[in-house]
Amino acid sequence: MAVASGPMAEAVTNSTQHLRDEDLYAIAAYLKTLPGSDTRSPRALKASDKVMQQGANVYSANCSACHNSDGRCINQLASSLAGNPGIQAQNA
Ligand code: HEC
User: Fold this and answer.
1) Position 61 in a domain
2) 58 — phi, psi (to 5°)?
3) Is 26 among the domain residues?
4) Cα-Cα-Cα-Cα dihedral of 18, 21, 24, 29, to 10°?
5) Average pLDDT, stretch 47-55?
6) Nearest CA residue ID for atom 39, ligand 1
7) What is the mean pLDDT of the chain?
8) What is the spatial distance between Cα 2 and Cα 80, in angstroms, rounded to a whole number?
9) Which residue among 39, 46, 67, 69 has the highest number of C-beta atoms inside a 10 angstrom radius?
10) What domain range is 64 assigned to?
11) Does 73 sit in the ligand 1 pocket, CB within 6 Å?
12) 60 lines ligand 1 (CB under 6 A)
């Protein structure tokens, strides 16, 4: 499920949902001409790694109230982080 809120929700409600297919293709064509990022995905760490355990603590203390302890969405509150395609997307 995709979620937009704040100014992006206004953009979707008042503007982008009304775009015609040719406008969407033109936007996609433009975006594809832009240079990609040189940033590479970090290598995966084992769950037992100290950094992963620190991250779990940070998540538990700062994020789980809205995103649930297992990262699954809380209806009407916040989108799911677990399995979220935007978060899992590979860098180009
Ligand atoms: C007070 C509630 C709240 C807390 C705490 C919170 N979030 Fe969120 N988060 C939201 C809501 C609501 C959204 C969806 C609206 C939006 O995208 O602006 C969201 C969206 C996101 C998204 C984007 C998801 C998407 O589908 O685009 C990410 C990533 C995220 N949060 C990560 C975190 C992390 C990491 C933390 C902790 C450091 C955190 N959030 C803490 C409420 C919260």
Assistant:
1) yes
2) -60, -45
3) no
4) -170
5) 95
6) 63
7) 88
8) 9
9) 67
10) 45-86
11) no
12) no
